[in-house]
Design a protein that fits this description.
- This protein has a single domain, classed as 2-enoyl-CoA Hydratase, Chain A, domain 1 (Alpha-Beta Complex).
- The radius of gyration is 18 Å and the shape is globular.
- A six-stranded mixed beta sheet has the order 1-2-3-5-7-10, with helices on both faces.
- 44% of the residues lie in helices and 15% in strands.
- 46% of the residues are buried.
- With 263 residues, it is an alpha/beta fold.
- It contains eleven helices and ten strands.
Length: 263
């Protein structure tokens, strides 16, 4: 297992800790692979009845590591994003969907930043507990992109359509109080990791068969045409990555200037 994400076991609870703290757990290719692999590994562990996923006090996950953009752009131009490599998902979507698709409940404990891809990973959990000072953003518009890591499957069941559109179009940063009000955070608490562990232990004390059946039932009745939505995400992103305006968005962001987009 990669040291990019650590897995601890506490009885019937697995705790995953994203461990790229020097980069705010930002998602470069190695981190993406590590997050997906960790989810797959947890799914194979015997006796696990609930999962807690967290980052650190400064960041749950700050989103895409912008320095990795050339690698991702090359992937879009060669293999494309519409190829399914992880069931219904591609690798990038699997970073969120692997947690969503685990048979046992997953609780995200969020401190610091949950931006872009990190926001979407958080949405892959069944329950999201956040610190009062946590910050959130559907950040992709800042880089001339769209959410394409399962976000269009996961966010639409939690947020009103107009709120989802506003946050997606603007890439604005919002706090824990708004996140709770808009439905993407379940509750706000001073110590989200401790609260998440308490919830996980409570869930682990219930019948694992009933809990798994309940999660499957909720999921099956909540989402329709998931595979088609995931393909649509990938197709939209494939067209954007490496395009002139997307590259301009990245350069302007890195150079801290107003972008000059072409119509």
């Amino acid at each position: 297992m990669s040291d990019r994400i650590l897995i601890e076991t506490h009885g019937h609870v697995a705790k995953g800790i994203m461990n790229r703290h020097d980069k705010m757990n930002a998602l470069d290719p190695e981190q993406i692979e590590a997050v997906v692999q960790a989810g797959q590994d947890v799914g194979k562990m015997d006796g696990i009845r609930a999962v807690v996923l967290t980052g650190g006090p400064k960041a749950f996950c700050a989103g895409l590591d912008v320095g990795s953009m050339p690698v991702i752009a090359k992937a879009a131009q060669t293999d494309g994003f519409q190829t399914r490599t992880h069931g219904r998902s591609n690798l990038y979507q699997a970073t969120a969907m692997v947690w969503h698709e685990l048979p046992m409940p997953v609780i995200a404990a969020v401190e610091g930043y949950a931006f872009g891809g990190g926001f979407q990973i958080m949405l892959g959990a069944d329950i999201r507990v956040a610190a009062p000072g946590a910050s959130f953003s559907i950040m992709e518009a800042k880089w001339g992109l769209v959410p394409d890591m399962g976000g269009m499957v996961l966010a639409r069941s939690l947020m009103r359509g107009d709120v989802l559109r506003r946050l997606t179009y603007t890439a604005e940063v919002f706090g824990a109080e708004d996140a709770e009000r808009w439905g993407v955070v379940t509750e706000v608490t001073e110590d989200p990791v401790a609260r998440a562990m308490d919830l996980a232990q409570e869930i682990a004390g219930r019948s694992p068969d009933a809990t798994k059946a309940a999660k499957a039932l909720i999921t099956e009745t909540e989402f329709m045409d998931t595979a088609d939505v995931l393909i649509a995400e990938s197709a939209a992103q494939e067209k954007l990555v490496g395009s002139p305006n997307q590259l301009e968005a990245v350069m302007a962001g890195m150079q801290k200037r107003t972008p000059d987009f072409k119509d």
